[in-house]
Specification:
alpha+beta; 5-stranded antiparallel beta sheet; two-stranded antiparallel ribbon; 3 helices; 7 strands; about 40% helix; elongated
Length: about 180
């Protein structure tokens, strides 16, 4: 995955742009924490719950015909939990105080999610390319083609005519 330092840097910039944030976490869609800045909160637990909520949100979005998942906002008595799509392989979850300007939270969360998505997707693409190159180097020769099949001409052997013997024999057939 993308460099933890780069993602953590983006999380810190997000917290600087929105001072009412109390935490920010980037996780893979598999629930593993990529980077976190969540004082007082268990990041592994938040990541696991994020992925669970993501699954429900994706199904809800699909079932209602709203398209691909973009974001999920939960408002509690003491503040907000917002989860944003971050490319194909990650999600961003931010925690905010109740007094946060929700429009600013949405705007900055979307921007940070897009940036983290770029980092994660670029790293995934580079890893996939490295694997392809390694496989090519391990087996540089193209696979040998199988020799063409030779077919022998099929011939029919003549059959003797069939005749039916009996009281009602009417026909003789040849095949």
């Amino acid at each position: 995955m993308a460099s933890e330092a780069e993602i953590l840097d983006e999380l810190r910039r997000l917290r600087a742009r929105v001072p009412q944030l109390t935490g920010a976490l980037a996780a893979g869609v598999d629930g593993l924490v990529l980077a976190q800045d969540t004082p007082g909160v268990e990041p592994e637990r938040v990541a696991a719950l994020t992925v669970t909520a993501l699954g429900v949100a994706v199904r809800m979005s699909d079932a209602t015909g709203q398209g691909d998942f973009r974001e999920l906002i939960v408002r509690g008595v003491y503040g907000y939990v917002a989860t944003y799509a971050a490319g194909r392989g990650a999600v961003l979850t931010v925690l905010a105080q109740d007094r946060v300007h929700v429009g600013r939270l949405l705007l900055e969360g979307r921007r940070a999610g897009a940036r983290i998505g770029e980092l994660v997707d670029a790293e995934a693409a580079a890893a996939a390319e490295a694997i392809a190159v390694a496989e090519e180097q391990a087996d540089p020769a193209p696979p040998a083609k199988a020799p063409p099949k030779t077919t022998t001409a099929r011939t029919r052997t003549p059959r003797a005519p069939r005749t039916t013997t009996g009281t009602n024999a009417r026909t003789t057939t040849e095949s």
